[in-house]
UniProtKB/TrEMBL annotation, chain A:
Provenance organism: Nadsonia fulvescens var. elongata DSM 6958
Reported function: Neddylation of cullins play an essential role in the regulation of SCF-type complexes activity.
InterPro entries per the UniProt record, alphabetical: DCN-prot, DCN1-like_PONY, PONY_dom, UBA-like_sf
Name the record gives this protein: Defective in cullin neddylation protein
Annotated GO CC locations: plasma membrane; ubiquitin ligase complex
Domain DCUN1: 66-261
Automatic annotation (TrEMBL), chain B:
Pathway: Protein modification; protein ubiquitination
PROSITE patterns attached to this UniProt entry: CULLIN_1 (PS01256), CULLIN_2 (PS50069)
SUPFAM superfamilies in the cross-refs: Cullin homology domain, Cullin repeat-like, Winged helix' DNA-binding domain
Protein name: Cullin
Entry keyword set: Isopeptide bond, Ubl conjugation, Ubl conjugation pathway
Length: 270, 803
């Protein structure tokens, strides 16, 4: 949810650092939208830049001249007027070598600032690819493949996780119906399945069972975001032995852990 | 005889030998000669004084190096007035040494030990110190001039004559004597004998101890008290013997005696030592002596005492516990085990008392016996804490913790039926207060009722202070109070306000705001009613024709009163429509803009049965006290004798549960009779038809008979009661949610950013006067506030306030 304060923070970062909006957003996301810490982080080199990370896999060098008209040409290939619509999106995704249900599609939607499902706008499309110094379909394919790899790794690097986190958080607001603050449970379940399968493993199945059978309510942004943190936590403590129910976790996760532990205890006592 | 003593002529001032011989003769009288010879006379005293004076002011005397003054040819004329005295001082010193060595020799020769030694020592000391004071006067001139000058010049080892006497005693008698005869041991033996119960001459011991104190001399300032001799020679061996003595005594005493007896012994021993301090020891020994005694009498056996505490508690031995408390309070950490034992004991007693009560009662718990049970345990141990433990902070705290535990959580308070885990105590307490404040409480005509009532209310407050969930009490109490007020069943206004002010004192005014507003509403409502009554009687030509019946209305504010609204549609009986409209217009005229909601469900009335007569003479008509709903049903029978269920439903418009519930009570009283069910067949006539069956018919019972002239049919319907307790639970839950969110927002508004744990802690802290929030409860409300965007999560488990 890009609130007004977040937008103004992005604007400030772009003026101060000269970063593009996309990278400024990534920077701010990394620092939890704290403007001062983000700027400090940028200048102290703590910014885990997606572009740098992915560029090392692609061949481009930062100094390379970007062919804007090439990007425009690609855009026009799929667009009707100034926007790529649903059909164009489907074709574009396929041409990038992705399936529609790939996690990388969400990464692209985030990076290219898709305003809603099945739509890319011209300006954002061109600016973003330009920022990434990518101007050919082949490079775009490579970038998409890199995203897909990062988002499906069972053992992601910290750069991968930073990307993952922003894509994950983006997914919530991206799927929010206008005027809504919560995600319908079925939607949330679909996207959890889509995004977290490799990362959360068996825990995801248990979680989805819990959400659909016990919790049975729409999913708030806090629950959504904190579940990602919880998935990361589970990587350290898969048996949840150290889990502190009085800690800062939302109560829905407390309830989940409680349920897991009681069923575990019941199973072992049998 | 005295004349012989006085040397006729004063020696020449310049004659040292002559002068000393003259002086020595006098000193002999003072220190050595048998006092039967008469001692020194004042005449002698004067003469010696003069001789010394003369010597000291003489310009020169034989053998005095001071003569050099002349040889230096007036270089310093003032030296002509040079102070003389050194020789005299030396002679005196040698004399005293010699005298005391003789005393020592005599002790050795006479082979004095123990008591004899002590007595001789005291006797000699008395004479010597008295003499020393004399000498000090006689040598006053020497003291004031030569000695002063020497000391002023910083010469060591020169003292005024009195001090000189003491130093010589110390060095030439006391110290060698101690080495050869162990004087101190003799004194200690005396004290030991006293400890074993013998009577000793304490005056002598006191003197000898004063002697030790006097011998401690500060060489630089002789006026300063210096306890070095007392400390080194006496106090430290004394403390050592004390330690040994009590270690052994305790051990052997405990072999044959109980620890309870031992504590009595300790008490006596400590008092004895205390007395010893005042009688003959130096007061400066107080801390160390008592410390030693405490260590060996109490500390060494503290564990044994502490282990006995449980038994004393169980046998209610208050005076022994008091003694134990007093002993153990003297040593560090001594009371800690007592606190722990007291806490768990009181808690167990409370819990067991409630278990016993719950076994005795078969049906639901009587709030009075429950409260009394809680109180009995509290009273018993409050008394113990106060009288035996002198309200010691630590023990009071342990007691309070225990009370909190058993009062809130016991077999009745958190019975299995109570699924939410909240304590039932506050509710039972509120119900008990209701039974006290209601009319018809049993002892209404008791002369002491008022006093009694107040002390009972105080008892409730005693338990109340330990209740965790004060909000539950508040909610239940408010509901019960509202019933008492609305149904006019309160016994006395005074008692009501009394109780409310007690609650206010305990929890602050905020707690009782609503309760007070309820009383205000009642008085406003009463005056409103009076006004209406006047209006309805005096209104014009129609006179009382305007009102078919007495019609009283209570108007109270909706937000304050927890009164349930009607849950069913309702047609006002046509006999009442007139009154209803009159009142509505009256009220709206008075307060335009206020909304009047009628609580039909709370309304009641009385009906007279004119068709059937009863009573002793058979001529009185029955009066029925009914709910408004019942009234609506019965009034219909003014036009017809019999209705089907469908007709009644249409007339009253009531929903089935209320209609049937009301009807069932009327049927039970046989005011109406039911005939025929669904089919109306003969078979269903024999079987009892069910109330409310389709087509069932209800007929007015013309043969109605009852022993009583007034019948109360206005009884609570079962389903109502259950609904109410659910409602109470829900209202408490909602209140808590609001309360917690308000607390959290208030905290975050001032702190802006706070760690999750700190927020939880502070929330508990700020809520506990009202109730003990559980962590999951708090977390749910934090979640809610995040969702409402009052808060957001920051890094490192912090929460941030969003303005």
């Amino acid at each position: 949810m890009a609130s007004a304060s977040q937008l103004s923070a992005v604007r400030e970062v772009t003026t101060i650092t000269g970063l593009s909006e996309a990278r400024a957003t990534a920077l701010l996301t990394q620092f939890n939208w704290s403007l001062s810490r983000a700027i400090n982080g940028y200048y102290s080199g703590e910014f885990r830049d997606i572009r740098n990370a992915s560029n090392s896999t692609s061949k481009g060098s930062a100094a390379r001249k970007v062919n804007t008209s090439a990007i425009e040409a690609i855009f026009d290939n799929y667009a009707e007027g100034d926007a790529i619509g649903v059909d164009g999106t489907i074709r574009y995704i396929q041409d990038l070598g992705l399936q529609l249900e790939d996690a990388a599609v969400l990464a692209l939607a985030m990076v290219l600032k898709s305003p809603e499902m099945g739509r890319f706008d011209r300006r954002e499309f061109i600016d973003c690819w330009q920022d990434l110094t990518i101007d050919s379909l082949a490079d775009m394919q490579q970038q998409a493949a890199a995203y897909q790899k990062a988002l499906t790794s069972t053992n992601p690097s910290s750069d991968d996780l930073a990307l993952f986190k922003s894509v994950y958080q983006f997914t919530f607001k991206y799927n929010l119906a206008p005027g809504q603050r919560v995600l319908p449970l079925e939607t949330a379940v679909d996207y959890w399945r889509l995004l977290l399968g490799p990362l959360a493993g068996d825990h995801l199945t248990a979680w989805l069972d819990f959400m659909t059978q016990v919790y049975q309510k729409s999913v708030s942004k806090d629950t959504w975001n904190m579940f990602f943190e919880f998935v990361l936590y589970l990587r350290q403590d898969p048996l949840m032995t150290e889990y502190d129910p009085t800690g800062a976790w939302p109560s829905v996760i407390d309830d989940f852990v409680e349920r897991m532990k009681t069923t575990d205890a019941a199973n072992t006592s049998q | 005889m005295p004349a012989v003593n006085v040397p006729p002529v004063l020696p020449s001032p310049n004659d040292l030998v002559g002068t000393w011989a003259y002086v020595e003769h006098g000193i002999d009288y003072i220190l050595v000669r048998d006092l039967s010879e008469g001692g020194i006379t004042s005449q002698m005293y004067m003469s010696i004084y003069t001789a010394i004076h003369n010597f000291c002011i003489s310009r020169s005397n034989s053998g005095n190096t001071g003569m050099g003054g002349f040889n230096r040819g007036g270089a310093a004329p003032s030296r002509g007035a040079q102070l003389q005295g050194k020789e005299l001082y030396q002679y005196l010193k040698a004399y005293l040494s010699k005298h005391l060595r003789q005393v020592l020799q005599q002790i050795v020769d006479d082979n004095l030990h123990d008591i004899d030694l002590v007595q001789f020592y005291i006797k000699t000391w008395d004479r010597y110190t008295l003499g020393a004071r004399y000498l000090n006067h006689i040598f006053d001139y020497l003291n004031r001039h030569w000695v002063k000058r020497e000391r002023d010049e910083g010469r060591k080892g020169v003292f005024d004559v009195n001090t000189l006497c003491l130093t010589i005693w110390r060095d030439d008698l006391f110290k060698p004597l101690q080495e050869q005869r162990n004087l101190i041991q003799a004194v200690l033996n005396l004290i030991q004998r006293e400890r074993h119960g013998e009577t000793i001459a304490t005056v002598g011991v006191k003197k000898i101890i004063q002697c030790f104190v006097s011998l401690g001399l500060d060489e630089n300032d002789t006026k300063k008290v210096n306890l070095s001799i007392y400390r080194e020679y006496f106090e430290s061996p004394f403390l050592q013997t004390t330690a040994v003595f009590y270690t052994e005594e305790s051990k052997s005493f405990l072999q044959t005696n109980s620890i309870v007896e031992y504590m009595k012994k300790c008490e006596t021993r400590l008092a004895e030592e205390q007395r010893r301090l005042t009688v003959y020891l130096h007061p400066s020994s107080q801390p160390e002596l008592m410390e030693t005694c405490r260590r060996f009498l109490i500390q060494q056996h503290a564990t044994e005492m502490q282990q006995e505490f449980q038994a004393l508690l169980e046998q209610d031995r208050a005076s022994d516990m008091k003694r134990m408390f007093e002993l153990l309070s003297q040593i560090p950490e001594g009371l800690k085990p007592l606190q722990e034992q007291l806490e768990s004991h009181v808690k167990r007693q409370g819990i067991e008392a409630v278990v016993k009560l719950s076994k005795e009662t078969t049906s639901s718990v009587d709030p009075k016996s429950y409260t009394d049970t809680l109180l009995r345990v509290h009273t018993k141990y409050a008394k113990l804490v106060k009288e035996s433990f002198k309200d010691h902070t630590g023990l009071v705290k342990a007691f309070d913790t225990a009370c909190k535990a058993y009062i809130n959580y016991n077999v009745i308070a958190s019975g299995a039926a109570h699924s939410k885990g909240d304590s039932k105590t506050p509710e039972l307490l509120a119900r008990y207060s209701d039974s006290l404040l209601k009319k018809n409480s049993r002892e209404a005509d008791d002369a002491n009722a008022d006093v009694d009532l107040d002390s009972r209310l105080n008892n409730i407050m005693t338990i109340f202070q330990y209740v965790n969930e004060k909000d539950t009490f508040q909610t239940v109490y408010t509901r019960l109070l509202s019933k008492r007020l609305v149904h006019n069943t309160s016994a006395s206004d005074e008692a009501e306000t009394n109780m409310v002010s007690k609650l206010g004192e305990a929890c602050g005014v905020e707690y009782t705001v609503k309760l007070n507003r309820m009383f205000q509403d009642m008085s406003v409502s009463a005056s409103l009613q009076a006004e209406f009554k006047e209006l309805s009687y005096s209104s014009g030509d129609n006179g009382n024709g305007r009102l078919a019946a007495d019609f009283a209305v209570q108007v109270v504010s909706k937000g304050t009163w927890p009164l349930p609204g009607p849950k069913s549609p309702f047609n006002i009986p046509k006999d009442l429509v007139n009154a209803y409209e009159l009142y509505t217009s009256f009220y709206n005229k008075k307060h335009s803009g206020r909304k009047l909601s009628w609580l039909w469900n709370m309304s009641k009335g009385e009906l007279k049965m004119n068709f059937a007569a009863g009573g002793a003479t058979g001529k009185m008509s029955y009066t029925l006290q009914v709910s408004l709903y019942q009234m609506a049903i019965l009034l219909a029978y003014n036009t017809n004798d019999c209705y089907t269920i469908e007709q009644l439903r249409e007339i009253t418009a009531l929903s089935d549960d209320i209609l049937l519930g009301s009807l069932a009570i009327i049927l039970k009283a046989r005011v109406l009779t039911m005939c025929g069910g669904a089919g109306g067949s003969s078979s269903s006539k024999t079987a009892t038809p069910t109330v409310g069956e389709p087509n069932s018919i209800y007929r007015l019972n013309y043969d109605f008979k009852n022993k009583k002239i007034r019948l109360n049919l206005n009884l609570p319907i079962k389903s109502d009661q259950r609904a109410e307790s659910d409602e109470v639970a829900k209202s408490i839950e909602d209140d808590r949610k609001l309360f917690l969110q308000a607390v959290i927002v208030r905290i975050m508004k001032t702190r802006k950013e706070l760690k999750h744990m700190a927020l939880i802690q502070e929330t508990i802290e700020q809520s506990k006067k009202r109730f003990m929030p559980k962590v999951p409860e708090i977390k749910k409300n934090i979640d809610a506030l995040i969702e409402k965007e009052y808060l957001q999560r920051g890094n490192d488990n912090t929460l941030q306030y969003l303005a």
